[in-house]
Amino acid sequence: MDYSILYKESFSYDKISSISKYDLYISAYDNCDRTKKVYTKINSKEKKWIIFPHYKSLKKHELPLKGNYISDQYKEDEFYLKFIDEWNYSSDIKLCVDITGFIRPHLLYLIRFLSIKGFKKVDFLYTEPKRYKDADETTFSGFIDNIRTIEGYSSMFRNPNTNNDILIITAGYDDNLLAKIAQNKNQCKKRYFILGFPSLQPDMYQESIIKIENAKESIGENKILKFSPANDPFVTAQIISEIINDNPDATNIYLSPLSTKPQSIGIALYFLWNFKEKPISVIFPFSNTYSTKHAIGIQRIWKYTFEFPI
What we know:
By secondary structure, this protein is of the alpha/beta class. It is 27% helix and 26% strand. It is built from nine helices and 15 strands. A seven-stranded mixed sheet has the order 1-15-6-5-2-3-4. A six-stranded mixed sheet has the order 8-13-12-9-10-11, sandwiched between helices. A two-stranded antiparallel ribbon has the order 7-14. The longest helix has 14 residues. It starts with 7 loop residues before the first strand and ends with a strand.
């Protein structure tokens, strides 16, 4: 499959009302203007905020008063228990998910749930920031509690032979996360780092290069750099496909989404289309604390039409 041909478009914030109407719109609340403003403007019959306990800096008075789904559970599958229990929507509804404020494992778990519920297509929105508050020093997550497979993203073909394991990371700003994953999968002889290029902003590419350099002791010398637009999940999935096709003897394949949300859903897309045939797992360094209000401004908005395998 050529993932790069899937549909995407971008538009400015003042054009958001031109998007066709949805039956249900889901967004994650992080108190950033780029999530709150889009939530207000989007045309949908029903809207739902997802509120994560990981955003500890959020105060009660800051939270929206209605349309909330709140859980105090941190683990992705446990967080969604009540959400899944209360789900009464048909897979035929016109659904849009704004991925901008989501925590990545929880976003991927939601995508897996939508796949199981039989959705064929879902629109995902992503709003690019003009910049991050602290540039390359921006901290997105706190202390890493553990590194494990994201629930719903474990390989069906775990190979006890690890001689040709490969690691593919979409690499972002956090050199600590890069180092943790590389150390955890130190048996992988080949380590691929997909950098966001073109990046969301010109300086962000250089900042991600600096982060890889900072983690070089953990990453080692056997790294292979690849490139995919930071705002394009479909090209990201295609690059992953090409890497895996170039490694037909791979014993186990580990994917790790450490960069932008669009590249993260590119990992989810590739997994869903291939996990029944290939030894793929998606791993992540988990934290119970994530920062809020780290993005400044609205650059442009992307809409991705995500097609699920039937």
